[in-house]
Amino acid sequence: MIKTNFSIIRKEYSGTAAKEDVAAISRHHRIQASPGYRAAARYVLAELQKAGLDAAIETYPANYETKFWNARSFQEWSATRATLHLIAPEKEACKLADYREEKIALIQRSISFQGEAEVVLLENGLETADYANLDIAGKIVLTKGAVPRVRELAVERFGAIGILFDGMNPAPPVRQPMDLADARQYTSFWWTGSERQCFGFVLTPRQGLWLRGLLKKQKVTVKADIESRLYDGEIEAVTAVIPGAEKPEESVLLVSHLCHPQPSANDNASGVAANLEAARTLHKLIASGQLPPPKRSIRFLWMPEMTGSYAYLARHENEIPGMIAGLNLDMVGADQEQTGAVMVLERPPDAAASFTVDLLERLREELFDDVPTHGGLESYAHFRTATTGFTGGSDHYIFSDPTVGVPMPMIIQWPDKFYHSTDDTLEKVSPETLNRSGSLAAAYAHFIAAADEKETRWLAYEMLARFQAQVAQVAHTAVWQGHNPYPKLDYLLERQGTAIHSLLRLHPQADLTAVLRETRQLVTQAANRARSMNHEPLNHKAKELDVWEQKAAALIPRRTRRGPGLAIGAMAELTAAERDEWHAFTKGRQGAYTLGALAEYWADGNRTALEIIDRIEMETGIRDAELIVRQFEMLARLGLLTFML
Questions:
Q1: Alpha carbon distances (Å) from 509 to 451, 454, 501, 503
Q2: 110-130 b/e (C-beta count within 10 Å ≥ 16 → b)
Q3: 174 and 339 in contact (C-beta within 8 Å)?
Q4: What is the pLDDT, as a whole number, of residue 535?
Q5: Residue 491, number of CB atoms within 10 A of its CB
Q6: For residues 618 and 596, what is the distance between their CA atoms, to the nearest angstrom?
Q7: Sequence-ordered alpha helix ranges (H) in 120-164
Q8: Phi (first) and psi of residue 243, to 5 degrees
Q9: What is 76-231's CATH topology?
């Protein structure tokens, strides 16, 4: 029956219809809290209602006074025109950017400006030393550096009035900056209401290269004409539901962020469209009796990335205990041949271990391993796919936080050669990829919504089978490399126990005793095998702690608020010196963002910072005690964390 249901979903799901939705959505300039975003939200709502779903738009305040848990809201923004012309030297005069032609040509949330100004060349402008002996007051700087940091230094501290950005972030191995020489990178200001606001334009790498050469020889003057405004407004989230027949208060969520500039087809008109077609497909199949009605509700959400998740969860806080699981659809439609992408299933963090990725992996195999081998006896997927550990950077980062407790993997096509650029256009999106991602999401949601004792028991043993392969590989690899496998095996056993217990969300009366016993036996067998293969006794002697590990051993961190602490605007509450210090410390540090998020997830007052460092090393293979201790200290300064006595 399970396989039959999946087949029904895949046959009904239309990747072609989803691509039509991508076309419609990508025509809107979908900046968070803007008229273009609102128009896209109304399009999604109309399509849901046309399909017969129970759907609505929720609104939240867009102003500087509102917070959603720890995430600051911000003002609504709109722009009607923006052009940038080079006017001197006169013989090089030309138009450099026009908002009418390419919305990404303007740094989003730029303020109005009409006038002329000299351009000053920066390489990056990320350090205060970059401004030594430069007079930039009242001028515009040209930079490849991260715009938020450049704005703080160039505008806030040294008096520049605007920024020209000619960077293009790499996306290894499919993109280096000059691979998109004539594209512009999506760039935005994020105002908190307390800083000095400014304007800016985005140049292509080719324009930047030319302008940099010109600036090294002579004075350059540009003329900017921007009409825009910031004002108190609203943020919208679109929501639709297929009510559960038995437990409507429980739900599984399919989430897609609706924001990003025009066109942003794969990121994330594709996720929006895939989710929309999943809603249509499930509603039709359930209403017609082709699929059994779900016991739990299936909730579909479209909202601004990150901000919308905070806003929705903060408003529906009393419903969170009933949110059984979710799935984030972000950049799910890329044509793999054009973009170089891989369909990635990203796990939730280990701190939120659950059944979700094991289910998602099995469904992917069930749905798409359909290309026969030469002999016709086996089959496999005819596209690139992988499963990875948690990275974050999208809405699952918030839902999967243990203080929220909604386990949520992500489906993403990554890397994407055209990510966050004007070249992220409709023709790079594939109906076949949309079908794979969307039908997989629909099958996942229906399984969880319909699951009872039978499905729970099946999934428990599916998890056991996958865990067996994992522990065998960990033990074998450790022996091969001459490492001690026992701490990692102990960690995996503990986390798998948590994941198995998450099955009680599906069937609270499930007897998991046998599965837990067999799980422990698997680890014992793997440890014994490792011991028998190792010719030398394994060294269990504890390593001497360094100064940061010693400090970590004395700290027991506990978060004081719900959701990830370093939300939008949080760093603005630090002093300028503290932000400088944090920037210098994290610059070039491997995985700083993800490691910091993982550290927060474990900070529940039940373990020392050293124990958290150990766990992060088990999950990622990276040990950075100084980073974790300093992040905890920073969160404490912000009032987002306290240390237990």
A1: 13, 12, 11, 10
A2: bbbbeeebebbbbeebbeeeb
A3: yes
A4: 47
A5: 17
A6: 15
A7: 147-150
A8: -65, 145
A9: Glucose Oxidase; domain 1 (3.50.30)
In the structure, how many helices (H) and strands (E) does the chain have?
Answer: 19, 21
| Ranges of H-type helices in 451-512 | 453-481, 486-501
Dihedral over Cα of 483, 484, 487, 490: its sign? positive
Structure tokens that stand for 474 in this block: 């960990």
In angstroms, the CA 321 to CA 405 distance is: 8
Inter-residue contact 12 to 284 (CB < 8 Å)? yes
Q: Which structure tokens are listed for 418?
A: 């055209």
Name 60's bridge partners.
235
CATH number of 2-73+234-450: 3.40.630.10
Q: Cα 643 to chain center, whole Å? A: 29
Which regions of the chain are under pLDDT 70? 1, 534-542, 567-568
Please state whether beta strands 342-346 and 379-380 pair in parallel, antiparallel, or not at all (unpaired): unpaired
Q: Alpha-carbon distance 327 to 253, whole Å? A: 6
Instruction: Specify the amino acid at residue 634.
Output: M
563: region left, alpha or beta (phi > 0 left; psi from -120 to 50 alpha): left
Would you list the domain boundaries of the chain?
2-73+234-450, 76-231, 453-533, 547-643
Between CA 350 and CA 582 the distance in angstroms is: 26
Could you list the beta-strand ranges (E) of 531-592.
557-559
CB distance 225 to 297 below 8 Å: no
Q: 138: left (phi > 0), else alpha (psi -120 to 50), else beta?
A: left
Q: How does DSSP classify residue 339?
A: H
Nearest CA to 613 out of 527, 561, 546 is that of 546
- Count the neighbouring beta carbons within 10 Å of the beta carbon of residue 484: 15
Residue 57, beta-bridge partner list: 238
The H or E element spanning position 120 is strand 113-121
Beta-bridged to residue 429, according to DSSP, are 334
Nearest-angstrom CA–CA distance, 177 and 181: 7
The whole-angstrom separation of Cα 571 and Cα 565 is 10
- Using CA atoms, how far apart are residues 341 and 41, in angstroms rounded to an integer? 27
What is the reported pLDDT for 537? 47
Residues in the chain: 645
